[in-house]
Design a protein that fits this description.
The protein is of the alpha/beta class. It contains 39 helices and 28 strands. The longest helix is centred in the C-terminal third of the chain and has 46 residues.
């Protein structure tokens, strides 16, 4: 029994430090448990068994196979192999990629030290095995070449039971091992000797060993080649391949069993994985040596300076519908890019002249982006380095650049000239996570590599990669890729880099010494086309590729398409070793690059058709339809850019916050004032409330004092000093304008996010993208449905702001009003004004045309698109020249390599050639490469470089190669004929796919609509949701005719109204004239100021005057019931424009009983710099719309007619839903003008002309017959009508 615990004071304690501290007593340990050594059962037996296996491996006995060839009739139907027959070095591979990064600590327990020692020993064993493979690889190239040469174009043969390749009579050594083929496995005997090793004999007969020394298993080369081709189209699936192979063997009756007769579950996985990996390494080494031969031949061809390389650009027909403009002369110098870049994309880097100005689009376009899905788990380990990546930059190079950036940022930033205000770039930096290099996107505790950064050309061909090993997307990765690219370019070459946060990186490079001046002076940044929508509008004006001169149709979104092809690697990368992950990505990048290179012709033809011809033709048509000259459109675009890039276009958020507080206080004071007035009215009715009234007077004095303080507080904000152009503008108007501006920025970001999500779902459903799966699809739809109500609510609130601004608007402000946004996502996608910020400053003088005239805005859009298409056409022409030139040079190099003896290349081949091997080992590989290049003349043929040009290059290549080798008589070559078979009556694959509504084969990746078309509404189509019901009828169509009405419109007659009745004007003070609502008149109220407007010759009618006078005129000239006219208010069309709901429309318009009327009278107000009234008469029986504008301006009607058509559709739908009455509006409408010549010369009588036109309509005439000199009489008539009506 342990002793009883004593009091606290008896416990051990110390007085050091502050006060007295007690320590807890140690628990008593049982010596019999802690000091007794325990023997683990079975350890000695396990050790002895391992020693016995080691002895058998060192002294292998002759293995008697229990399984023979499947062709042997004496073999049983179900052959079996004991487990010992495959026990070899492959068993140790299970430890190769284990975690070996545990820290060493001398104070660790013996068990921990044992684990570390085991991990270190495993790592050492894997490193030794890798070193053996590397020593073995050079000896296997010649046997592989020999096997490929013998079997090319022939079906594979089955090797004999005993194989050898000795030709010198050496002493033989027999080794038995298991050989794996497509449909069976068997045991073979290999007779190796001093001149032919075991591995060389295996590879000579089409078998690849699974271990670098003492292999006990070999895999068919054809099986490995098939898996390699499968890997290029899918991903690394060793486990699936091994399991499938084992299952197929079992199905075929071949089984591997243990000595006890049990079936082995995974007999091939580790061995097959090693064979696949190192077979690929052998092929990589073979490709490098072939590339070495071709590189040397390319240098000889380039050094010869044959005239064929100096041919002028190809003569090509004009295929574009866009007329050519003045050509720009570039001062360039002659040079060439590094051969590595030329081989990866000859279209981009195969040029001979460089030095194009950055302002004209630069020489080369590349894009970069990071992806944080390609992570690597720390627990998967590192592994030995068995492969040198050809795409990845070294880690030391990236870290050195990171240290340089850190040193540069410690110095003060320098001033840099920029067109974009810093406020806009700050907003972009806040909006994008990629701009925050410190943001942790991946847990570094679980992952050591967090992502990949890619650099691609504009044809989506990968150029270089950088491995990301930091939590965020730091700038060192993109800077390292850009710097490495410039190191391979001529000294005068210029580059445009498209990056999601190109504006932020541009500012960093300009403020700090991150890049050399020789590089930064030849570098320009732009944002990618799709990601540009997340940037501020001022930033888009400078960095959006659709708005930047010289970028053509380059979108920069090729990195996203590259990541979509790398999706299949994400899962396997995380559990593979660190080195194997780099190998997987690098090899897949090579496959993608080679495939994209062969499809350059398809890319170019598609860009010519979909980009230049279709988009350019539509832009040219839009430019012709707008009716504005290109020179004027370019001038307006320059004015727009200058205005929207101004710092004044970015109101500080502090000003809005201060205005918000002032107006909140103002609203509280207004409420208290109403309360005081109500209290006074109540107290004045009392007889003995003198004291209360005195107190109330004191409160009113205090209230007036507070109002003065509020005015002083507003004055202290110095709004006029900060924004002198806002002086005289109503405070509430400014406040609502700022609220609308901030809300639209928020709406734009939300809407673009919804566009991306819906587009992803649509592509997945349509088959153009990877399927999302049921769970991910439901989660995406749920997320969209959750966010969509907030977006729709924000849009409705913004439209309320627009309506409120229109009510508060005074034409003297000269501030353009914002345009409302559609409440349907499908319509919002094509809304051009979504990308424009709300204008918050008055226009100097007259409002510019780009802001007021919708035709000018459409024309600017069209001319920008046309310019980009023209630029793209010029760039594609140069790329077609580069491709044709590269084809000729490459074919010349291949022809030269075939003719030159291989002995001249042995110093660069670095292979071990056995004595019994003769020359010409690489000829069949070179001939295959020649066939591949020759196929490009068919694949790359296009309207800019026809097949005849490529054929001429091919003929010239043979002639030049013969001259370089001194063969003037010509060389007869033996062409390798591939095995082909003819299929009669085979339908064309592409046509068959189109007949069945499918995508043509090979185009499922390339036919994705490029995101460059999104900016102008060319790509986003379809509805908002499959589940969303469309309660609105389809909008009817209208044919707009701006000309004198034809004879068939017989009711367009002139109204000759004679205003001869006596008009008596009342004198004396006039109070408010009010009438309760009625079916005919509605709610009429004229204030004294409204009556004064009617009597003032130079006053413009307001909405009260126009609506009230229209109702009185309707009552006067149509006294009988029922009236055939439905008279709407000037507020009704804005309700439809601002997307009011059906309940609100019904509440305000049901009084007109429009469903019973055959003519609808709709007055319209256009809020311009002076405010303008027009009239629209809708004749339901004749299906035509009469448009009246006293200034006879046709352009604004093009903007109003879609809203009028929506007005018809909405009212028809409401009538059906409320009354079950159908108003037939779904017909072909014709809009005609009542007059095509201006009848008004001043700027104030437009409201009077609208009322005069109403009188003509009420009298059954088509157009008013009044003259401008009679407007003063008509004004007095209207005033008399108001004063003598029953409103008094």
């Amino acid at each position: 029994m342990p002793p009883a615990r004593g009091p606290r004071a008896a416990l051990p304690s110390t007085n050091r430090g502050f006060g007295r501290h007690f320590t807890s007593p140690h628990k008593v340990r049982n010596p019999s448990k802690t000091q007794t050594y325990v023997t683990i059962p079975g350890r000695d037996l396990k050790r002895q068994r391992l020693l016995d296996q080691l002895s058998e491996l060192l002294n292998p006995p002759a293995i008697q196979s229990s399984t023979a060839s499947v062709n042997d009739p004496h073999v049983s139907d179900k052959p079996e192999l004991p487990l010992q027959s495959i026990a070899d070095e492959d068993v140790a591979l299970q430890y190769e990629f284990q975690d070996d990064v545990l820290p060493l600590d001398s104070e660790k327990s013996p068990s921990e030290n044992t684990v570390n020692q085991n991990s270190q020993s495993i790592h050492n064993a894997a490193s030794k095995r890798c070193a053996k493979w590397k020593d073995l690889i050079p000896t296997l190239i010649v046997p592989l070449l020999d096997y490929l040469k013998r079997t090319l174009g022939k079906p594979p043969t089955t090797p004999a039971k005993t194989i050898s390749h000795c030709q010198a009579g050496c002493e033989m050594k027999d080794t038995s091992l298991l050989a794996l083929f497509y449909d069976y496995f068997t045991t073979i005997t290999v007779r190796s000797c001093q001149c032919s090793t075991l591995h060389q004999i295996l590879l000579y007969h089409g078998l690849f060993p699974t271990a670098p020394s003492q292999p006990r298993m070999a895999v068919s080369v054809e099986l490995l080649a098939f898996y390699r081709a499968l890997f290029e189209r899918s991903c690394d699936a060793v486990n699936a391949m091994a399991a499938a192979l084992h299952s197929h063997y079992l199905y075929r009756g071949f089984r591997i069993s243990s000595p006890q007769g049990h079936t082995i579950q995974e007999p091939f996985r580790r061995s097959l994985g090693q064979a696949i990996q190192w077979f690929d390494i052998v092929n990589v080494e073979l490709e490098q040596r072939v590339e070495g031969i071709l590189s040397q031949c390319r240098e000889k061809v380039a050094a010869a300076h044959w005239p064929s390389d100096q041919d002028p650009p190809l003569d090509r027909p004009q295929i574009s519908v866009i007329p050519p403009e003045n050509d720009v002369q570039h001062h360039t110098q002659r040079n060439s890019c590094h051969p590595l870049l030329v081989q990866r994309c000859p279209a981009c880097f195969g040029g001979r002249t460089f030095g194009r100005a950055l302002s004209e689009g630069a020489d080369i376009h590349v894009a970069t982006d990071g992806n944080f899905h390609h992570r690597h788990r720390r627990t998967a380990g590192d592994g030995p380095i068995f492969y040198t990546p050809t795409y990845f930059l070294p880690k030391s190079q990236i870290d050195a650049i990171g240290q340089r950036i850190s040193r540069a940022r410690k110095r003060a930033p320098r001033r840099w000239p920029t067109d974009v205000p810093d406020e806009a770039i700050d907003q972009c930096e806040t909006s994008y996570e990629a701009a925050d290099g410190k943001k942790q996107k991946t847990s570094m505790d679980s992952y050591d590599d967090t992502g990949v950064m890619a650099l691609i050309c504009r044809h989506d061909i990968p150029l270089f990669f950088a491995n990301i090993d930091t939590p965020g997307e730091q700038q060192k990765y993109s800077v390292a890729l850009i710097e490495h690219l410039f190191s391979l370019l001529p000294s005068q070459a210029t580059v445009v880099v498209l990056y999601d946060i190109g504006c932020v990186l541009q500012r960093s490079i300009s403020q700090y010494d991150i890049l050399d001046d020789k590089v930064s002076s030849r570098l320009r940044f732009a944002t990618t086309a799709m990601h540009a929508y997340g940037h501020e509008w001022a930033c888009q004006l400078v960095y959006n590729p659709r708005l930047v001169v010289g970028l053509g149709l380059t979108d920069g979104e090729g990195t996203e398409r590259l990541w979509s092809r790398f999706i299949k690697l994400i899962g396997i990368e995380r559990s593979s070793s660190r080195q194997r992950r780099l190998w997987l990505i690098d090899r897949q990048a090579g496959v993608v690059g080679a495939e994209t290179l062969s499809e350059l012709g398809h890319w170019l033809r598609r860009r010519l058709k979909k980009g230049i011809r279709e988009q350019g033709g539509a832009a040219q048509k839009g430019l012709e339809d707008c009716g504005v000259s290109p020179a004027e459109l370019r001038t307006q675009w320059s004015v727009q850019r200058a205005a929207q890039l101004s710092i004044r276009a970015h109101a500080p958020a502090r000003l809005k916050k201060e205005l918000d507080s002032v107006l909140t206080l103002q609203a509280d004071l207004d409420a208290s004032e109403r309360a005081l007035q109500t209290t006074r009215a109540t107290l004045e009715k009392e007889h003995d409330a003198a004291d209360a009234l005195e107190t109330l007077n004191s409160m009113e004095r205090t209230h007036r004092w507070l109002l003065d303080k509020v005015e002083a507080l507003y004055s202290s904000l110095n709004v006029q000093d900060k924004f002198p152009e806002l002086e005289g503008v109503n405070l509430e108007f400014v406040w609502v304008l700022l609220l609308a501006r901030d809300l639209k920025i928020n709406i734009r970001k939300r809407a673009i996010g919804s566009f991306f999500e819906w587009d992803k779902l649509d592509r997945a459903v349509g088959g153009k993208d990877k399927p999302l799966g049921t769970k991910l699809h439901q989660q995406t739809r749920k997320a969209i449905a959750k966010r969509q109500p907030a977006l729709m609510s924000a849009i409705r609130k913004f439209n309320k702001y627009c309506e409120q601004l229109e009510q508060l608007y005074d034409p003297t402000y000269a501030i353009p009003l914002p345009t409302p946004l559609p409440t349907k996502l499908a319509d919002l996608r094509s809304e051009q004004t979504l990308l424009e910020d709300v204008w918050i400053t008055p226009a100097e003088g007259k409002i510019p045309r780009w802001l007021e005239d919708v035709e000018v805005r459409h024309g600017i859009h069209a001319i920008l698109k046309r310019d980009r298409c023209r630029e793209e056409q010029c760039r594609i022409g140069a790329e077609a020249d580069n491709m044709c030139r590269w084809f000729g040079n490459e074919l010349t190099a291949v022809e030269l390599a075939i003719r030159v003896p291989e002995c001249e290349f042995l110093p660069i081949l670095a292979i071990i050639v056995p004595d019994n091997v003769v020359d010409s080992q690489f000829h069949h590989i070179l001939q295959q490469h020649r066939d591949t290049v020759l196929q490009l003349q068919i694949q790359w043929a296009n309207p800019l470089a026809s097949a005849a040009h490529y054929a001429a290059r091919a003929e010239n290549a043979v002639r030049v190669a013969a001259q370089l080798t001194g063969d003037t008589t010509g060389i007869q070559l033996c062409w390798l004929q591939p095995v082909t078979c003819e299929i009669s009556h085979a339908p064309d694959a592409e046509q068959d796919a189109e007949d069945h509504g499918l995508e043509p084969p090979g185009d499922y990746e390339r036919d994705v609509v490029p995101p460059e078309e999104v900016l102008f509404g060319d790509v986003l189509e379809g509805g908002d949701s499959e589940d969303e019901e469309d309660h609105h009828a389809s909008t009817p169509t209208v044919n707009f005719q701006w000309k004198v009405p034809e004879a068939r419109f017989s009711n367009i007659t002139v109204d000759l109204l004679d205003l001869t009745p006596e008009m008596t004007i009342a004198t004396g003070p006039i109070s408010d004239l009010v009438q309760p609502p009625s079916e005919r008149l509605g709610h009429l109220q004229f204030a004294p100021k409204d009556v004064d407007i009617l009597g003032s010759p130079g006053a413009r009618l307001n909405d009260t005057c126009l609506n009230g006078c229209a109702a009185l005129l309707h009552q006067k000239f149509c006294p009988s019931e029922p009236s055939p006219f439905a008279l709407f208010s000037t507020h009704d069309l804005p309700r439809v424009r601002y997307h009011a709901d059906d309940d609100e429309l019904w509440r305000h318009m049901s009084r007109t009983r429009y469903w019973e009327k055959r003519v609808w009278i709709l007055p319209i107000h256009r809020p311009s710099s002076w405010g303008h009234w027009v009239l629209c008469s809708i004749h339901l029986d004749e299906q035509h719309i009469v448009l009246f504008d006293s200034l006879a301006e046709p352009s604004p009607w093009k903007r109003d007619l879609p809203v009028i058509m929506d007005f018809l559709s909405r009212l028809s739908t409401i009538a059906v839903s409320r009354l079950r009455i159908k108003v037939d509006v779904d017909v072909e409408w014709t809009a005609i003008s009542a007059t095509c010549a201006p009848i008004q010369t001043n700027a104030v009588d437009c409201g009077l002309w609208v009322l005069a036109q109403m009188v003509a309509a009420f009298r059954g005439q088509g157009i008013t017959g009044m003259k401008e000199e009679g407007m003063s009489t008509f004004r007095r008539y209207l005033q008399s009508l108001v004063l003598h009506s029953n409103l008094l």
